[in-house]
Fold each of these.
Amino acid sequence: MLPVEIAITRFRRDLTIAALLRSLLVLVALACVLAGPVFGGGDGMFILMIVGVAWVMLSYRSMQGTRLAADSPSLIAAGEFDRAENHIDAALRSFSLFRTAKLLSLHHLALLRHAQHRWRESVLLCQAVLSQKLGNLHGLAKTTLLLLADSTLQMGELKGAFDAMARIGRHRLNLAEALTLQLLQLDYGSRIGAWESMLQGAGVKVQMSELMPTLNAARCQALLSLAAYKSGRLELASWLRRRAELLADPKDIASDRPALEEVFRQNN
């Protein structure tokens, strides 16, 4: 298994080397362009052609790393963690002239560690990605923040989860991201006992939960059921609990979230 600290160190080293190399190639190209009119001769154009060829070759090698990184999410989703780890390791080891491939590879490693329930390592990787200037990579920033929020929640670090969710709120979210954030907010609310806040707009939250993957939809409605039960709204709590039970086994719903066991004990 790839040690997280080594992956982060390699990631930062490679970004520094790539930035220096890009700067060197650009400076040499500019020097050739500016020196041509001053000194004349064809040497400048020849060197400029060499720089161009070097740039194209290095860009091609960078594309190979990008293709390796692109395969990782589908492997993680399929549960093929060992193959995903090998792809990510190869992508991190490969040379890339551009930052995007390395950022994606480290993000995918954070996604893998999250899927493996290695929460602390996922947090460290997310923080490493977010410490970089992501520029136009808004999508990467949002998904990394969502990973960070969930990982810190699972570790019981509520302040870290709150801060991550607050940062997510500054971004414009698509539907899938909004659904993920809703589940995170309900999970966070259940951990701090914000029952009334969880039930605000409950009807809309139930409708949105119907767009989630089955287990997440069940957990969302189970969390709302818990909030209703804690608020004394027993009829609503029972209705939401039954909806959750229709979607998934209570043991699966309550896995990693022991507080939800209380919801299903109400049926006994």
Note: The two ends are 44 Å apart (CA to CA).
Amino acid sequence: MPAANPHQALVLSHIAFEDLGSFEAILRQRGFAIESLLAADLLPRAQSCDLLVIMGGPMGVYEQDQHPFLAAEIAAIRQRLAARKPTLGVCLGAQLMAAALGARVYPGTNGKEIGWSTIQPAPGQTPPTWFTPLLADGLQLLHWHGDTFDLPAGALHLASSVRYSNQAFAIGNFALALQFHPEVTAEGLESWYTGHADELARAGISVPALRATAQQHAPALAQAASTFLNQWLDAALPS
């Protein structure tokens, strides 16, 4: 049964269909009350929630002239991280966290990374136990980005991929940035194929092939994501 006084999870969205995915059921099972906001509405609420989840989106962190709310969003994230409040960023969310911590975010020089592939542990690092489910042998995760970031000062480098070295970082147990998408489901991705149709066409990526790969790998990812998220929440929000 949900807790009598549930934790409050605030989900910051940049585009409607890039949502919590499989993470929503996990948070609800743990008794979280979930509220979603558009990025432009973040400021009054960013510091008061128990957990802030920052989702992905098609804009670049450096496009603040086109999307003025990004500067205020980065400032709000910086304030939350300085207070050591639990924060999870996915894709654009990870890039915004990196920017809030003073790191450079920029277009990747190795082209877009779109599709399913593995990640590897960061060289020379021992990952926290809660991160290891995402490093399981052969586990395929969805990548969908063209930008990358430098590792922020003081961050623990968690993972890399063949194409981009900075795939995840943590600050203690309270802040976690993931460049990839562990939250996706095969069903939820149907909206992505439509919403990002132009991007996929420009990249020469076959939607039927991407769909077939998702149907093959998404169930195992959902299981790994559930284990990972529950363990990270235990560490980030100890009872």
Note: The two ends are 16 Å apart (CA to CA).
